[in-house]
Every structure is written in structure tokens, then in C-alpha cells.
Amino acid sequence: MTGKILRTVLASIFLLIGLSSMAQKTDTIIHINGNVLLGEIKKLDNGIISFKMDGMGTIKFELDKINTFKSQKSFQIVVKNGMQYYGSFDTSLSKRMVNMNLINGRELVAVENIVELYPIKKNFWLRTSGLFSLGFSYSKGSGIANLNTSGKLDYRNRKSYTVFNWTENTTLQKDTITSNKTDLTLNFQRAIIRKWYFGLNAELSSNSELGLDMRALAGFSIINYLVQNYHNRLYLSAGSSGNKEWSGGETTPVNNIEGLLGLNYHYFKFTNPEIHITTYLKTYPNFTTAGRWRLNYSLDAMVEVINDFHVGINFYYNFDSKPLSADASTNDYGITTTLSYSFH
């Protein structure tokens, strides 16, 4: 009797799991060639829809290959003009159009105008993505080795975006560290209206070439996305920050109030191979020390060689018109080749 009950319970559990799995994969994508695909929309970003199909796993579609699609699940939707919506989707008879089912009615939108799409009820892991990079070079003749490590973790919520970045560049000669540059940054963006965001940032950094033992910084900014489509993201930021700087082994830090003016750009192309280019330029006029200003520039360019693995280059340039240490250089720069792994 007990065995029969147990078998009944197990059969019910497996039936519920099967029905749940079937319920999750009820989204429909209609390809521009007319093919109808059934599965589950995981997300849309950078012009790519991640779509899970039975027997094939998760595959990726370029947005310009999709005629229309349908899903009864609730999504966070960002369109090209910066507007955000929450709703589900239904197919449209119009070419390359889709209907958004919203709380206050239905709205027709061009497929190519959708910039981001994330299921609202999905878990933390799906909304998180990351990148890890490693670069190394060595010359026997000079005995100089260069090591570069970097990474990024970002998380998207309904109206906010949080990203943590770290980079470390170390130069060694005959087992001695001759220079070191380290940056840890945490950035938070909160949508205000359309393409306008409010930003908070915190940073820890050091640069031996500029005579900086450590800088601890916290600030805010107003951000405007000048360009926001599925190949390009360009935004301008302006704000202010305060920091403490330690240099030359001094125990008493120097306090500063700085302005911020920055320009960030990201380019993505889902070709064969896949291409990513990310670059930024930030300048910090110092309100505490007359005539002092800083500038940071970075460029990362990567090409995918196999699934989720990339090769690329990283270039950085840092400038400080009045470094704390009198014998320190006013600028530092470097370039390395990298091997990277990304997820989600």
C-alpha cells in the first residue's frame, strides 16, 4: 500500500515538473523566412535574443532575423527612445512589428526598436552577466614580465543597473615589482525618465607610476544616453565626487573635491566573429587644488574565437597634472593582449 502511494506521489511530481517545463516553453518566434520556433525567451540585449528550445539548448538570434514574436510572460522592455514598459507580447500581421500588451492597452512597436528585454520574474543569475580577462607577456632579454587581470560583473533590475569592474596591471623585473596599477569600481545607475539616469559610484585605485598608494572615491552623476540601440551605446555623464589620497607612505590622506565629465561608448556586432569594443574618457577637474586635473582613458576591443572565449587588446592612459609625489610621473599608459571568458 505504502509503495503504491509513493509511486502515485512520484508520478504526480514528475507530471507537474513536465507540465511546468511545457508551460515555460510556450513562447513563439517567427523568423523572417517564415519558420515558426517554439521555446522560451530568456532575454534580449545587444540586438540578440537568447531563446531556449527543447533538444537544442539555448540559441541566439540576431534581432533583424526576426519578423515577430509572442510570449505571455511579463517582461521589462526598453525601446530605442529610452522609454521603459512592462508587459507581454503578441504577434503582429505587419512586417517586423510586435504588439506590446501593457496595463493600459496595446501598443505596436517595431522589432528593431526594442533595445532590451528581460523577464520580470526570472532569477538573479539570469540578470547577471560577467567577463574575466587575463593578459601576460615576458621578454627573456630584458627579464621584464607584464601581467594584466581584469573582470566585470553586472546586474540589471527593473529600473537600475549595477556593475563592478576590476583591473590590475603589474610589471615585474627579476622577481621585483617595478610598477603596479589597480582599479576597483562599483557603479549604479537608476532610470529617471527616458534616456536620463542618476548614477552613484565608488572607487579604490592605486598607481605606483603616478606616486599614488591609494585613492578612495565616492561620487554621483547625471547620465544621458545620447545613442541607445542594439549595436551602440553612447552616454555622457557629469557630476562630482570626493576622495582621499595616500602617497609616499604618508599616513595622513589628502582630501579632494572633484568634478566629473565622462563619455562612455560600447559597440557590439554579432558577426562571425563576434566583436565587442568598449571605451571611455573621464576627466576630473580638482576644486580643492587650483590647476590640478586628472584624466583616465581606457579601450577594450575583443573578438570571439570560440563560444564565449575572446582574444583582444586593452589600452589605458592615466594623467595627473599635479601628482602628490614630487618625483612621480604625470602620466602612465600601457597596452596588453588578453584572453577573456564571458557568461550570459
Task: Explain what this protein looks like in three dimensions.
By secondary structure, this protein is mainly beta. It folds into two domains: 26-119, no CATH class; 128-343, Porin (Beta Barrel), CATH 2.40.160. It has one helix at 2-24; strands at residues 27-31, 36-45, 48-53, 57-62, 66-79, 84-91, 97-102, 105-110, 114-119, 128-139, 144-156, 160-173, 176-193, 196-207, 212-228, 232-246, 254-269, 275-285, 293-306, 309-320, 331-343.
Q: What is the CATH top level name of the largest domain?
A: Mainly Beta
Given helix and strand content, the structural type is mainly beta
Order of helices and strands: HEEEEEEEEEEEEEEEEEEEEE
* Number of structural units classed as domains: 2
| Biggest pleated sheet | 12 strands, antiparallel, barrel
Strand order of the largest sheet: 10-11-12-13-14-15-16-17-18-19-20-21
As a percent range, the share of strand residues is over 45%
CATH topology of the largest domain: Porin
User: Are there runs of 5+ residues with pLDDT below 50, and where?
Assistant: 9-23
Under the CATH scheme, the architecture of the largest domain is Beta Barrel
